[in-house]
Amino acid sequence: MIKKGMRRQIVLHYILVVFLALLLVEVIFLIVIRTYYYDSIYTRITTQLNQAEYFYRVTSRDSPISLQELLRSFELKDTELQVLTLKGDMITSSTGFQPDRTITTSDVPEAVGGGIGRWVGRQPGTNENVMAVSKVLQIHGRDSYVLRYVTSVEGVNADLFNVTLISVSVGIAVLAVVAAFSFGLANSIIKPLNNITAVSAQMAKGKFNARIKGDYLYEIGELASTLNYLAEEIVRSNQIKDDFISSISHELRTPLTSIKGWSETLISGGYDPEETKLGMSIISKESDRLIGLVEEILDFSKLHQNEMKLSIGIVGVKELLQEIILNLWAKAEKKSIRLVLEAEEGIYVRGDANRLKQVFLNLTDNAVKFSHEGSVIMLSARRADEEKAEIVVQDSGIGISQDHLNRVKDRFFQVDSLNGGTGLGLAISQQLVELHGGTMEIESELGKGTRVTVYLQLAEPSPEVETMGQESLPMPEENHDREEGNT
């Protein structure tokens, strides 16, 4: 007995389907064979009856001699020919016996009614299976006698029984083959599933280095590949999580150490106002840094849980990029990096100004962070087509290798962990751009620089926005000469 499970279900379903199909085919086959044999006998007798009727009608003789001649002339082998009255009483028979009895089978009334009567059943007295076919003989246009053939169908039934045995044997053989085939098919499905289940159980216990081995086909192969990929992603995510925890711990420890050190120093007292001012400045700066880290993590959490709310409005792209340059100008000056803006006039997009500023501030800050001293960072904006604006942040810095380029948008991933950060900046920027219905593309070549392109939907500005857009933000004086002709 097969234990409960998919193997049992597959085998039983296959056998049941094939059994029902075979049963239907065999029943139809046997009915057709039986009908063919019986109809052959009926046709042969009917032909003989028609010939006898024609002969008797042509001779036009109504005497016992004519009936005997009819019996001799149209007798069939292994078949009894009887002449009956219209009431079914037997007059004479080809066997020579004239039993004093009345034939009551259904073929006689059918013949008297004007057709050819047919009856199949057991012969009274002998209990033998027979077929009786009857027809009325007419003399001078009136019914006179009933001519009745009676033949045994025992031989036919024996042949049909043998055919039935053969067909049942063939059906059993087919079922045996199907059962063997279904066992093989079930095993080809169940064994891989058992293997996958065993490996999945190991993964559920935390053994993510376990892998499903075997070259499986079709859906099972896809399932195995998916689980292996899932395990790889979990291992990678765990590694990224560990790296993130290590990185964020370092990022938090550094400002906290500075805050604690200067706090203790200032508490001890005895410092002049300049040193006290310096200490308070460092504490404020490091506090802002901590707030930025916490806000970045909170933003990522909101995006991950689809809880980020946007305040949608009309945003002027040129004015937005000018704000970015103003915010990062001092940081760029420390590395003698030029921030160059090339933006077409009158480009407006629909979005949250603060969140879009966060996106481009992050992209430009990364460009400053990974650019060489004395290099140039280009911020540009133009209409890509009638529906989209193309905004580009391009640097000529250290660039990103192709291996890292495919993962640079992943959360917690850092190309260079020594430069600090949580590894969430690009992941957050990507999701914010997508929330605005846009796309972000990154192109980079190691040692030659990086180009980040953001596509956003264009919007028609209101008159108030156009008026405000004409009042451009002032550029820093020290950088203004460098930007002249580029903005």
TrEMBL record:
Q: How does it sit in the membrane?
A: Multi-pass membrane protein
Q: Where in the cell is it found?
A: Cell membrane; Membrane raft
Q: Which PROSITE patterns match?
A: HAMP, HIS_KIN
Task: Give residue spans, biased composition: Basic and acidic residues.
Answer: 477-487
GO terms of molecular function: ATP binding; phosphorelay sensor kinase activity
Classify the source by domain of life. Answer: Bacteria
Q: Which reaction does it catalyse?
A: ATP + protein L-histidine = ADP + protein N-phospho-L-histidine
What cellular-component terms does GO give this entry? membrane raft; plasma membrane
> What organism does the record attribute this protein to?
Paenibacillus durus (Paenibacillus azotofixans)
| Main localisation | membrane
Histidine kinase domain: from which residue to which, for each copy? 247-460
Q: Which region ranges are annotated with the description Disordered?
A: 461-487
Q: Does the keyword Transferase apply?
A: yes
Q: Which Gene3D superfamilies match?
A: 1.10.287.130, 6.10.340.10, Histidine kinase-like ATPase, C-terminal domain
Q: Where are the transmembrane segments?
A: 12-33, 160-186
Name this protein carries in UniProt: histidine kinase
